[in-house]
């Protein structure tokens, strides 16, 4: 499946910004199931400095700095991506017991396992506590296959939590998300990661895009697609398997990966600092269109 993804972000400022420095994770990354065929990253006004590099996790990062006064800022990421997904619309019948996976993470010196170990630890937005551990326990019953346990956890989050874009911000602690059972995709991803890590397992945060389809007989609205977040869990000898708790799905062709890391702080779509600006308005539009 091939897609063209256009992500446009526009800021308008009440006062001139004299200087800004920004970092973006907005272009699809290369991985075993996905290839970014071509991509452009443009900024208006033209930056004085613009660079591209690969971060610690292998994600593509665009850095730019604007050093002249400006009252608007527009960032456009335009890419074409092909997905040949080895992911599972149905999970494999067999996977090791989650306790066995935990033991492997604790003792194995295999390179893939060593790389996965950092995703067992707490991270800036995902800290494990007693309440999160307790919430995870019904899914992680003794000797249960890890993928079955994680799918059960995904189903519980999807069933028991309400999608509410007005309840949280990115800094809302997981304790409030768990207590009120409300949030958005970032919250559900962080919650699921915390529950998995509470059992000594490795889980990472995945950022990207989700293709949305209009109701039958209606045309798709431009700009109606969205940035999205989901998770992946590590299984020795099988690799990383993705789960989308917001939609209760095993991600396949409609999920386009831009970056992954320990949590949102590692893969923020756009972040930076500005001098001046006063108040601002923000408009974001995302279009994910099939090319075949």
UniProtKB/TrEMBL annotation:
Protein name in UniProt: Transglutaminase
Domain Transglutaminase-like: 177-247
Spans through the membrane: none
Protein origin, superkingdom: Bacteria
Pfam families: Bact_transglu_N (PF08379), Transglut_core (PF01841)
InterPro entries attached to this UniProt entry: Bac_transglu_N (IPR013589), Papain-like_cys_pep_sf (IPR038765), Transglutaminase-like (IPR002931)
């Amino acid at each position: 499946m091939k897609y063209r993804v256009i992500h446009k972000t526009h800021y308008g400022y009440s006062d001139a910004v004299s200087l800004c420095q920004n970092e973006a994770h907005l272009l699809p990354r290369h991985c075993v199931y996905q290839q970014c065929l071509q991509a452009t990253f443009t900024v208006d006004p033209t930056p004085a400095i613009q660079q591209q590099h690969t971060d610690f996790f292998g994600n593509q990062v665009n850095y730019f700095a604007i050093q002249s006064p400006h009252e608007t800022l527009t960032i456009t990421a335009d890419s074409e991506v092909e997905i040949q997904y080895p992911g599972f619309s149905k999970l494999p019948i067999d996977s090791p017991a989650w306790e066995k996976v935990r033991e492997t993470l604790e003792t194995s010196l295999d390179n893939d396992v060593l790389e996965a170990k950092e995703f067992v630890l707490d991270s800036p937005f995902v800290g494990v506590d007693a309440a999160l551990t307790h919430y995870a326990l019904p899914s992680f019953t003794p000797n249960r296959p890890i993928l079955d346990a994680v799918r059960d956890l995904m189903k519980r989050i999807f069933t028991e939590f309400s999608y509410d874009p007005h309840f949280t911000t990115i800094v809302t602690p997981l304790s409030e998300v768990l207590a009120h059972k409300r949030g958005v995709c970032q919250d559900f991803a962080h919650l699921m990661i915390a529950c998995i890590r509470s059992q000594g397992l490795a889980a990472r945060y995945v950022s990207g895009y989700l293709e949305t389809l209009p109701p039958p007989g209606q045309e798709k609205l431009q700009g109606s697609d969205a940035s999205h977040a989901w998770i992946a869990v590590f299984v020795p000898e099988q690799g990383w398997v993705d789960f989308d708790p917001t939609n209760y799905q095993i991600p396949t062709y409609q999920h386009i990966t831009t970056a992954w890391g320990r949590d949102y702080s590692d893969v923020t779509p756009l972040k930076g600092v500005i001098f001046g600006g006063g108040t601002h308005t923000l408009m974001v539009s995302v279009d994910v269109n099939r090319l075949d």
